[in-house]
Amino acid sequence: MSIALWTVIIVPFVSAFVLLVIGAYMPKKAAGAIGCVSVGISWVAAMFVASDFLREMPPDGFRTTLYTWMDVGGLNPGIAVRLDALSLVMISVITFVGFLIHIYASQSMYDEDGYSRFFGYMNLFVGSMLTLVLADNLLLLYLGWEGVGLCSYLLIGFWYKDATNGRAAQKAFIVTRVGDTALAIALFWLFVSFGTLDIKTILSAAPAKLVAGSAAATLLACLIIGGAVGKSAQIPLQTWLPDAMAGPTPVSALIHAATMVTAGVYLIARLHTLFTLAPPAMFAVAVIGTLTLFYSGFSALVQRDIKRVLAYSTISQIGYMFLALGVGAWTAAIFHFFTHAFFKALLFLSAGVAIDAQHHEHDIFKMGGLKRALPIAYWTFLIGAASLSALPLVTAGFYSKDSIIWGAYSSPLGAPWLWVLALISTFITAVYSFRVVYLVFHGEQKMEVSKHPGVLMNLVLVVLAFFSITAGFIGMPESIFKFDPLVRFLKTAFNTIPAYQNHANHAAEVMLLTISSALGLLGIFTAFSYYRHNRFAWIVDRSPFAKAIHSFFFSGWGFDWLYDLLFVRPYKTFAYWNRSDAIDNVFTGLASLARIGNSIFSSLQTGRIRNYAASLILGAAIFTTIVILRTKL
Amino acid sequence: MKLTWLILIPTIGGILAWIAGKRNTLACRWIALAAALADFALALSLLAQLDVSAISGKPFVQHRVPWVSALGINYFVATDGLGLLLILLSTSIGIAAVVASWREITDHVAEFHLAIMVLLSAIIGTFTAYNLVLFYFFWELMLVPMYFLIAVWGHENRRYAAIKFVLFTFIGSLFMLAGILGIHFVHAGTSGIYTFDLPDLQGTIMPAATAMWLMLGFFIGFAVKIPAFPLHTWLPDAHTEAPTAGSLHLAALLLKTGAYGLLRFAIPLFPTASLQISPLAMALGVVGVIYGAILSFAQQDLKRMVAYTSVSHMGFVILGIYAGTELALQGAIIAIICHAFATGALFLIVGMIQERTHTRDIAHLGGLWATAPKIGGFTLFFAMAALSLPGLGNFIGEFLILLGTFQVSRTAAVIASIGLVVSAIYGLRLIQASVLGPNVKNWTLSDLNARETAVLGAFAAILLWIGLHPQPIIETARTSLIQIRQDFIATSAPLNSDSGRINSTILPLNKFESRKNTGRSTND
Amino acid sequence: MINHAMMFAGLLFVIGAVGIMIRRNLLFMLISVELMLNAAGLAIAVGGSKWSQPDGQVFLIMIFVAAATGVAVGISLLLANYHERKNVDADELSLMREREPIEQ
Asked: Of the candidates B219, B310, B327, which has an alpha carbon nearest to the alpha carbon of residue B273?
């Protein structure tokens, strides 16, 4: 199994290296083939690993080391990977969805410059993400963590000729770097406290070393949260994700929907013991998740760019995952990640088809009536939107999202307002998803279709749609039908802590399910009726107050403005003001002093006898006076 | 004897190159290159002699010849693991410098190569001298060819930059000279022996105030070179105005002599005084990290931008050296080596861009990736190294430094970690301004030729190798650092690699608690 | 109590010194130098008379010789200078160039 496991990680790195170094010299088809096949190999190897693992089910997971990375001062991380239920689910999703997206991209990006560079970066990303989730120690995890950040930067700014893309990429990198710094500090602290960065050792030693509920444990957990919110685009570090839509659509699908943004969720889930020892921090996770999922729903409601709607939607859905983590529903969070990967990737890729078909137009108000022109894209997008809105019983999103709401309701760590806001957000989610469906695919066709999707692209869409429907069936709630192998499997990764005791019963669960389903359907209905008659625009036009709210939501609740005011502008102003280095003035001051001294003293050299005679006589007079005074005294 | 040959070969090569250069510039270049390669090979052969399992940090090869014995001045060169690493670094950078100037320097070629080779000799001499006066000799000798390199072959503002460079470093060295003479006489006062040899001077008994003043003399001399925060202002001008090979030597080697001096002289000779000044030194390091990064972001001249990143990176090194734990010291060594290659490569790239576009102004550059993808790719790679992306050596260095610092001072480590964010800000600006964005001036450049690709590729490979497998460097430096730490930390714990780790769950917030109570016999 | 003659000698000396500093005409500068020398001579003669020794007056003769020699040399220099420049202005003797501003 270890060979297969290393294959999963190493093959994408090798192909990335090949593509980046000599990709420019090979024909496009070869580059595309190498890019897709490598992820495909990763996926196949992952499936082998999965079957081995499921057969053996080692209780402590499976660990294998390539070599010792370094051994200095007590720090000796290895290039080592550990496989357990959590990481197995993660790598299955990453490789499978990644493979599908690579296939889609091989057709959709075919006409672009830098085709091989694109696949090189994508493979590098897949390799880094796999390293992140499989890492046995936090240093290797950090390597994967930064690696995905790098690839995100490179891919957002892929079309580098436009400076806007470069700025969006920089914003993404820097905002996530702030989170990474918090994570790094947490790493230092962990090492100093535990003497190692090995994850398993830390988690098993944590209950003994850290006092539950102490300030130290809470601060440590908060630092880890800092890292997680950066990568997962949660409040307060979420401002980069909407701008990251500047990248190509496959990038948005892979990195900013299915995988990289879930790295924070993975991190918290992996280090769950540290969080259970710090209840305030866990509650903070839940609060962050809830606030984020609530606020971004409203922002998604008013966006015009289809990808920005999906970006805010991603922020919102990851908020759900954070909420689940925060209330102790670990398996629910990962289950939602599992289903979300499928339907969000699907939404992005079918949106990509629509965008490409409308001359790269992103504005949903300029699109319309694509239902007939792009049938596969329409039906798959519809399925994706339905899954996102948690359409009852037939979509994967239903099962995963409701397991989260159920978790927030039933967990002793939850609070009423958490699940109430989550339910309200279900309504909003349905509204904004179907708003897009209506505006893009229904109604009048406003533009000619410029490009039809290729066969591979449609195939990928269909496969993803299939999973958007069926992926939920392996995590059904108990009140409906007792079939949840995925959830039970995931629980094995979280068995070091007692599962929360839920204090509610089946009846409550059914009622919650009914309420959320009702809200979802209401949302769909609201979206259709409002946009059929375009009532929203009417309201906004009539009232300046509504207009203000509209632009407030549109700008992402003013976070960008706030950060610009607090951080960006002061930094730039200070840097610009000090660009000649104020400290240098001290030393140039000394040099000026020397120059002034020079001019003063050289003015004594007049060349005139009288002046020299005067100085002689003056000196003699002073000297004589001193002698006289000294002999007198 | 090998060490003496290491020092002499570049000079001899330089003189031969100078003679040949009068007639044929190509022969001059090849002779210089051959000398550099020979020196590198000799350094490699020294590597074979190193025994990493030895516990003691004593030098493993030395050459001692009495010179003016009455005054205690001897020709005493020696090296241990740390010195060997720096010698290898010097010789490899020496090769790169000659290769980098192949087309850039076109007038006074003979003199140029003489200057570069003598500079290399002086640097290697600095890294191997174990007698204080000999060290001072080589230290000052470095200034002379460097001055000419900047003043003759430099760019527009070279006169100012060269004079500024010489004045700064020279005055700093005067403080060091005061310290050298001071410890010489103090030692003679207590033991009656007049000597300048390092091993003899270690362990001199002197009152605390004297130790502090003498140590400050050394510290100021090295702080100017490193460069430490308030004394760093010579660096941007000198780096920017120097020719590419000059910048390479400056950034990659001269700065390291300062750090080496701290590790070899300032700390072992005055352990208690160094301990007392470590909070201030760490603070200077932290400020340097952030200040250098902010200023780097603000520059319009591409080369000046890269120059300020050196201030930032060396801030980390000072922080690591004065944190004093094994992790921090090892991190400092790795950071030194990786900074040399990463920033050196960035200077090479800026030089290549300047050769082709004749400008370093950001307003005129941009969008170069399309016409010169190799330049684009390498710029990206080395900028990522500069912002310490994991997988490359700079990350290992910075991470170990921060980790080691966290063991002694959480505040310093947390503030210095901001360096991760600000380095990202300038690193990305560097990339964006030079190779990304629209190609406003419609440049069509010739991409890198084989020679340039080879040098940059070699640097990239080294950084990648160190990033993924730093253990050889750690092993080579370990014994020397144990020796240094033995004096610095002044702990009675056993001398193994675990003694850097403090075995407590939560650190005491006052880091001196664990140090104050340990007795110290010799110094003070 | 200082002798009145000594005071007179000191006064003469100061007048001579000031004269050198102030006068621009080389001839008058020479005369001032002579005045200083005479003042010194007066002082030494007075000193000799105070102690009723002839040494003061003997040394006075020496001073006269020295003064005369100095005057001879000075007058010949002055005449040579006058032949060159056609004036006896002391300020014109300066060969120093204008002070240039210091380079960067």
From this structure: B219
